[in-house]
Each structure stands twice: as structure tokens, then as C-alpha cells.
Amino acid sequence: QVPLVESGGGLVQPGGSLRLSCEASGFTFSNYAMSWYRQAPGKERELVAAITRGPGTFTNYADSVKGRFTISRDNPKNTVYLSMKNLRPEDTALYYCDAGQYYGGIYSSGHEYRGQGTQVTVSS
Description:
mainly beta, 4-stranded antiparallel beta sheet
């Protein structure tokens, strides 16, 4: 059983929108902060967005996506989302979700649960 399964990626034109989903199973989702990373060919992995465990939530974003991406979670559904708008070609990457924790207001990957990823391609 794969603990994190992403979906929702695809090909979209610049300026378009996508909503990624990541469904968790096999562990207590509500005990973990969650995040979305991305990695493009030839580039280092980038932390795109993260969200605390809840029920009250704190989020943070990479500067490159602030104001365009929104991370959210639904604990009863064991799912974390990434809503992306005004997409740019430079957003093209493999996006995957990750389970971790916040320490001192900074997200840290748990290196235990990570999905296989969903490809997002922004091109005209």
C-alpha cells in the first residue's frame, strides 16, 4: 500500500489552473504536517508549500508561488491539496507530497512518507 498517492497533474497552458490532490493511507494523517515539493529536470528539489497538522492551520510558501498557489487539507478525507493558478512554464515539474513536522515554524520532511508524484507541464 502506497502511503501517499498524488493526482491532478497534466498539461495546461500558461495562465491556466490545476488542483493537485494527495491522498494518504496507512498512517495517522492528522498527526503530520504536510507539504508539496517539486523537482524539474536538472534542478534541485524545491519545497513549494507546507501546512500544519490542524485543526487550525498555518501555511507557508516558496516565494516563487506566493499569491498563485494555495495549500489546504481535509483531515477526515486524509487528503492534502495544492490549488495552482496563473501557471507559468517555470512551474513545470514533478510535484509530490510529503509528510513531516514543523519545528520552530519551519517545515521539516519526515523522510518516511512521500508520494511518487504527479507531472505538471505548463506549455502553449
